[in-house]
Amino acid sequence: MPLPPSTVSPTATPGRARRVFAAVAGVTASAFALAGCAAPAAPTPELPETWDAVLEEADGQTVQLWMYGGDDQGNAYIDDVLAPAVAEHGVTLERVPVTDTRDALNRVFTEIQAGRDDGTVDLIWVNGDNFRTGREANAWLCDWTSLLPNMALTAPDDPLLLSDFGTSVDGCEAPWHKAQFTLVYNEDAIADPPQTMAEVLEWAEANPGRFTYPAPPDFTGSVFVREVLASVSGGADEVPLEYSEEAFDELSPALYERLADLAPSLWRGGDTYPANEAELGQLFADRQVDMMMTYGPATLTGLVAEGTYPEGTRVLTLEDGTVGNASFLGLPANSDAVAGAMVVANEALSAEQQAAKAQPDVWGQFTVLDLDLLDAEGRALFEALPASPVVPPYEVLSENAHAELAAEWVPALDEGWRTEVLGR
After folding, report:
1. pLDDT, mean over the chain
2. pLDDT reported for residue 4
3. Which residues pair with 93 in a beta bridge?
4. Do 333 and 40 form a contact (C-beta atoms < 8 A)?
5. Which bin fits 126, alpha (ψ -120 to 50), beta or left (φ > 0)?
6. Within 10 A of 202 (CB to CB), how many other CB atoms are there?
7. What is the pLDDT of residue 42?
C-alpha cells in the first residue's frame, strides 16, 4: 500500500445484499466538527530560525510517525533504514501503525480541541482528502518545509509537490514519494490485454469473476472509481478538477450506472468486495482474479521475485493514462517535537534515503527528487537501481498521466458509490 489508505469495519447494506470486507464510512464526527465548525485554534510554535538551531533543538527528541501499518515493506523501511539514519542526529523515530490515516487525524483533532500543546502525533503519512480536512481544521503546522535543506533537491515548479488533490501545499507538508495508479495483470491468463479503461471493463464482463476492485472509501478503490469516471465522461480532460455539485450531478450518473452494470461480472458476483489493496493482492496471488491495481507498482518486482505473485505479472499501461500524485509527511501544529519531526522529514528527502526507499527489495517507492539537481554521487545512487522485468520506469508509467481531482470529489464519489452501486 504505497499511499495512505482508509479501511473500516464490515457493514450490511439495504437493497441487494452485499457483504464488504471493510465497508464505507465517512470522516468521523469529531473530524467533521473540527473541519466544519469553529474549533480551538491550534498552537503555533515558534520555528527555529536556522537549520543549525533545528538540529540543536531536535537532539534528544522522540518523534512519533503515524502511518498505515499494513505494508510490511514500508514498516521495515522505517524501522531498519530511516530510524537509524535520524538516530545519528540524536532523534528517536517511533512508528505508530494505524489502519486508517483518519485515526491519526482524529487524535490530532481531539488533542487540539482539548487545548493540548504537547500532542502525541508528530508526523503523519498523508495526502488528499485527509490533508484537506486537516487544513480546514488548521491542524497542520505550515511554512516549515522551506527550512529543510533537502527541499532544494526537489523541483520548485513540480505540480505534484505544489498541490495535493487540488489543495495548495503551502509548506504544510513535506514531499515523501510519488505514485502512479497502475493496473496489473497476469499475462499467463490474459494473452491480449485491454488497452483502455473502457476495454478493461469490457474484459471484466467477458470474463466473469476474474476482476474486482476494493470498496471505496479505500484509497485504491476510490481512485479506480475516479478512473472510471474519466473513462465514461470521455476522458480525464472532460472532468473538471475543481468540485461542484453541478459537475457531480452531470457526470456521476453515467459512472454509477456503468459500475452497477459491471457488478454482477465481478469476483463473487459483486456480492463481496476486497477491503483494500492488500486483500485484492491476495486474490491475485491466489489466482482468484487475473487483474489487480496499485498506487505503488514498484513493489511488484519483489513480490514476483519471492513467488507471491505469478511469474506472468505485468503492468498494464493504458492509452488513456492514469492518475499520478505524491504523498507527504504532515506535521501537526500541536506536536511536542517539531524540530525532531523536521529532522526526520529532511532526512527522508535525502538522496540516500530516497534511493534506498526506491530499491524494489526495500520499499520500491518513486522519488520526489529532481535528479538533475543532485550531485554526481547522488545521481549515481539512482543510476545503480536495478531495472525491473515487471515494472517499466516511472517515465513510462506516468506517460499520459492526469492530475488528481480536487479532494472534495473523493467523499462525494465514495458516498455515491455506496448508495448507487453497493446499495442496489
Report:
1. 89
2. 56
3. 63
4. no
5. beta
6. 14
7. 66
